[in-house]
């Protein structure tokens, strides 16, 4: 990170003008591609390091992440515009995410993920891509789900396959 003085000198000299496109294409392990501004993608330390090592890279494979998860990550990157959001206080102040995060968008984003499996995939992908703020947001969401719950309920919450069992039971109950 350059000092403001260095950035000002570069601006005056025109050194900050990028000839190359500022966009990079991220490719998921299932072949889905998403374009994102490099500035936004820098929130991922893995992407940042890859781009610093190969500035001419147009497409970066993200082999540990599925397309639907990568789409959520790109949405997160675009919203945060390449800047790290405020750290979430631990322990959580509340079971409600909007009371735990400084940016209301983060609460809406993470609360909007309906499937536990999708949430867990997002946490794993954030870890894989080294996006600390998103990793913390996902983990805080899981913590908010289990906060104050009895042990049996915590086991259900932490088991992504319990979703399938719950929906089968709900369908069976509706059929009777």
UniProtKB/TrEMBL annotation:
Residues 156-176 are annotated as: Disordered. Residues 132-163 form the SKP1 component dimerisation domain. Keywords: Ubl conjugation pathway. SMART domains: Skp1. Gene3D superfamilies: Potassium Channel Kv1.1, Chain A. GO terms for biological process: protein ubiquitination; ubiquitin-dependent protein catabolic process. The keyword Disulfide bond does not apply. Residues 23-81 form the SKP1 component POZ domain. It comes from the Eukaryota. Belongs to the SKP1 family. This is Uncharacterized protein.
